[in-house]
Amino acid sequence: MITARAAASFEPVGRSVATARSFVRDTLQGWGFADIVDDAVVLTSELVTNAVVHAGTHAEVLCLRTEDGVRIEVADRYPEREVPLQSSTATMGSPDREGGRGLQLCAALATRWGVDYTPTHKNVWFQLDLPERPVGTRSAGPALPADLLPLADGRVRVAVLQVDRKGGISAWNEDAEELFGYPAADVIGKPLTELAAWPHTPGTGTGIAEALRLSRWEGTYGIRGADGRVAQVYASHLRVRDTGGEPSTVCLLVRDHERAVLQSPPRMPATDQSPASDGQSTDPFEVFIGSPAPDDLDGLLQRTVERARDMLDADSAFLLLATDDETELEVRASTGLPSARQRFARVPVEAGPGRYGSARMPAVHDDLAAVPGAVPLLTGTGMRSVVTVPLKVEGRLTGSLGVAAEAPGRYTNEEALRLQFAADRIALAVESARLGELERLRRGSLSFLVEASDLLAGTLDRDQTLALMAQMTVPTLATWCAVYTIADQASEPYLSYVLHEDEELIDGIKSLLSKISPPDPVPTPGARVWTTPAEVAHQAALRSSMRSLGLSGGSAHQVTSGIGPTLATASAVGGETVVLPLVARNRVIGMLTLGKPTDEHFRQEILELAEDLSRRAALALDNARLYSERTAISQSLQRSLLPPGLPHIDGVEVEVIYRAAGEGNEVGGDFYDLFPIGNGAYGFAIGDVCGTGPNAAAVTGLARHALRLLAREGLSGPAVLERLNSAILDEGDRSRFLTLLYGELRPQEDGSAELKVVCAGHPLPLRLRQDGTVTAAAEPQPLLGVIEDLDLYEETVTLDPGDVLLCVTDGVTERREGTRMLGDDGLADVLTTCTGLTAGAVAARIMRAVERFASDAPSDDMAILAMRVPGIHRDV
What we know:
Blueprint: E1 2-10, H1 15-31, H2 37-55, E2 59-66, E3 69-76, H3 101-109, E4 112-117, E5 122-129, E6 159-164, E7 169-172, H4 174-180, H5 184-187, E8 196-197, H6 208-213, E9 216-224, E10 230-241, E11 247-255, H7 274-278, H8 284-289, H9 297-311, E12 316-322, E13 328-335, H10 339-342, E14 346-348, E15 363-365, E16 385-393, E17 396-405, H11 413-457, H12 462-473, E18 480-485, E19 494-500, H13 506-514, E20 528-529, H14 532-548, H15 556-572, E21 577-584, E22 587-595, H16 604-641, E23 653-659, E24 670-678, E25 681-689, H17 694-711, H18 717-729, E26 738-747, E27 753-760, E28 766-768, E29 774-776, E30 795-799, E31 804-808, H19 810-813, E32 816-817, E33 820-821, H20 823-832, H21 839-853, E34 862-868
Antiparallel strand pairs: 1-2, 2-3, 3-5, 4-5, 6-7, 6-11, 8-9, 9-10, 10-11, 12-13, 12-17, 13-14, 15-16, 16-17, 18-19, 18-22, 20-21, 21-22, 23-34, 24-25, 25-26, 26-27, 27-30, 28-29, 28-31, 31-34, 32-33
Helix pairs in contact: 1-2, 2-3, 9-11, 11-16, 12-16, 14-15, 17-18
Protein name: PAS domain-containing protein
InterPro entries: Bact_Sigma-Reg, GAF, GAF-like_dom_sf, HATPase_C_sf, HATPase_dom, PAS, PAS-like_dom_sf, PAS_fold
Keywords: Hydrolase
């Protein structure tokens, strides 16, 4: 039986959908049908959209009230557009498609639904039945067949335990023993925290201890049973106190899948009729937003714009939040507008002179076509009339709320007052949620910057620093990133690194940026917008599309294959692009470019975080540059101190192994040399300057070059070393003492080799004979760089075929492991095992023995010079 009816007709325009929603909501709330109003509004919105938007006809909505519920009919004037049969679910379309969702919602939400056809109309209807509730119940569900009821494992057990103020279990019933396997005697007095497996992340949420102190708590956690397994339970806690005032917590627990036994029903949305029942006043915020309100800022703002749109029967609504300095407003939520294009876009607070150009005052625009650009946010959207009101907290501007319609002259000061009243109700809640979001963002920003600083400080490699800069910004701060570097003030910016979150788009963006002029290296801090990439990419995509259609000459077939990457690149860089200078030591050394895809903007907080990152990255990049330059200089100078190469000597094998101590050092205090003197003679030397590093390397260079020069003058070995001693002493405070083994080598016609050696304070050379005996090949003499008058002499040594002469620095003999040292005797023992080996094999075996002697890295320079007169030898 129909007890009431309400009908309305709506024009085929977009705003009719919002008007129809308001009509149905007001009608059902007036009838007291709050339980089904949300479902009815959703279904009406979808069906009216089908009529006025997709079918393009008037929509006639009829609401019929019955004793059991409501029947709503939506009729359009397009009967030719057939609706799929209810049984043909496959033809209704996917939930992800735009079309067909209204029919799927009818099938999902309505008690019954159907469609009637006449020669002039198509009528889609649905029936929503009221839930059956006995009088006085708070909440009730429908009556269900037995086979649809939830399963329970035999008897439903409710564990009841009581926890004292210290968290210890003071009561434990029989059902608790059955559920978890613990006798009461085993758990009484134990803290509940020992049994509870709480789903808690440190620093967030509520822990078990906090939950037990709340007056009421309800939720899910785990209890570790006597068998060691964790059972998921649904719990209801109630905080009580005994007659003596002692507080405790009563906990009711059931298996999680039996939670309906304890779970409280969800709160129903507040309605205008609710306060009358209990005599309490309704919160104006909940009247506008609804209850429960969204927990997050984005959800709250989106709910706000939707309710504002419906309240004034608008086609669109938007909400902007003010920056900290109140100079700009940032779009944070909208409905009925291209939100992807508008989100995070920024507009000035003071757009022009007068009250209509300021967001600090309410404003009503009768026709935006008469004042182009009055509301920049609505340019190109088709909106004609608009009303905007400020959101203020304690007199400070925190945002702006606006609604707009496609028709001109829709709003008056009366609507502005209604909207301002709503804005005043929500301003404090919005500001509180915004401050909470800012606090979370700041904590995240600090954590991000700390991690970024650690990563940047962990490398001095320029290329790795560039890669880290890009990888830290993508995708955390931006969708794509490009880094330009500037070598010096006279150089142009160079595109050094490009990164996109989709690796397939990197080459396209790199190609695009390489074809356009880089941004100007302006040292002004802060992010500035760079529109060139988006403009050039758009033009390139347009040209490619025209060529593919044959509109610009040439063969469409030849260019079609290149359209995809061009369009993809245009979409990737089509959003907002900003440039941040990389300034280090008062000089612009590069630029960090961040970009968004088509129609997207950067949040102000993200730009501020990117600015902080750019300062740290600039210093790290400049440090890497300086380190690379100095390393290159150092390596070049060090290489100049080493011999260019070993000469080939007929009848003598020669091998050298050289290791400088310290990271990045190629030359230290040890040195070697082998060079031709003339008349078939060769000079050789191996020495050790006191100390390591650059100062020792300087004396190394002096010694090596002086030896070559003096030896080629025809001087004898002692004379060469005496003059070198004088040159070292002439260095004054920079002089360092030097141990040196110098000799002259002359191969003989009989296959032997004659050596004349002078050992000035150096470890003695060792001679290995073919029979395996090892003897010293020289006598010790004074080292160089200590006293002026030296009385040196040379000794003659003949190497027979198969003999080896081994010369080393003290880094070899003084190799240590704890208190043990390799020493001269240890070196001689290793050399005795080298009989018959080539010079290269002898040097390699000595080096392996030194490395294996101790596990730590060598702390002293090492040089090994092995010379061997070939003879009969066996293979290694």
